[in-house]
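User: Run a structure prediction on this.
Assistant: Running it now.
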Amino acid sequence: MITIYLPRNFLPERRYIIDVMIRHYLGLDYQLCEEEGLNGCKIVLSEKKLLINDSFFNQQSEVKGYLYKENVPANLAVFNSKEWGCQSLPVIYGSPEIIAEDHSIVCNIDIFASAFFMLTRWEEHVSEERDSHDRFPLKNSLAYKHKFHQRPIVNEYCELLKMLILKINPQQVFKKHTFKCVPTHDVDHLYKWKNLSTVRKKLAHNFLTQGNIKDGLRNTLDFLKVKFLGKEDPYQSFRYIVELSIKYSIKSRFYFMSGGTSKVDNNYKLDEARKIIQYLQDNDQIIGIHPSYNSYMDPIQWGSEKKALEKIIGNNTVHEGRQHYLRFRVPDTWNIWESHQMTTDSTMGYSEIPGFRCGTCWPFPVFDVAEQKVLSLIENPLIFMETSVIQHMKLSPEEAYQHTKKLYFTVKKYDGNFTFLWHNSAMLTVEDAPYLFIYENIIKGFPE
């Protein structure tokens, strides 16, 4: 067992990030001690010591706290070292220097404060910037400004920490992670051709708004086949998803909506989804919740939707899901999930570009920066969403394939969770079918 000495300030924050990095991520047992006047985190093992110098919390006042926009750094250094296996590693806090001697190492990269910054998303808590859906914009994040939003830098910090520990104890054994493909499907709609009103809107969008005669004609033909020839509605992709999941021994997650107060909610009633949910349960798939547009700041609305869904799925309790439109407030929305006994949220991804909003591809326990406490809730970060590459980035199928493949192998390098969202309504449609081979490659595994 290793012994870790901590300064006596900001102990909830320090204990949290130590536990995530050392126990959850590296798999090491440890005991904590406090030491007055210590400038950082001191790890002692086999009579050798590793000091991770503090460049953040020791500069803050416990009375005033650290939750201020001015504490988000404007400029970052990078650490390059063949010896420590680092290539242009962003240093959020600290300086890019490691001093190694026979019985001790001093790391001036404040690994723990930097990882804490990314995992807790306190950057979002102190920011007033929001997009039209009241979401923290990717372009305002430190990661985007310094071009590391598609790097899991918390995983990179963990790799550096492993190497530092191995330097003082070459026999140390660490936790082995396992790569997982985690398909999730937000069920925003059940039918594309639900009624004549939706038919008129979609065809008008093709012919008039887009001026896309080809897709307009193809969608007209598709509607006629569904209406008169018994073809299944293109949003009814559940059997396709389940059969592919079973073939590759993967469980897919389906997050259903069950209410709402805005015009982008209530696209179907839960009774309409009853048979679909039963089919998914019969095939051992996972049912979760997709809370409505305004529920992210409304615990009463959130709770009513959870109860409605649980009533439909019988004796099973809903444990996981994702917020509609990825609407989220740190830490308020996490606390709503916590108060309703949820175990796993998977909202934390950006809509604009796939990547690592929390800087990691590993799940982690949530920390409430406002109340300085660890929650029971686990965040399983969203890495990829199909609408990001198709609608926001407007990539061609081949460009989207290459982009997704690169991200997939980045996650696989760290044996993380490739948690991705592909809507049931974006698979078998005229517009989205050309991208479906990407989904299939994610499920079966991209070729090396």
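The chain is about 35% helix and 20% strand.
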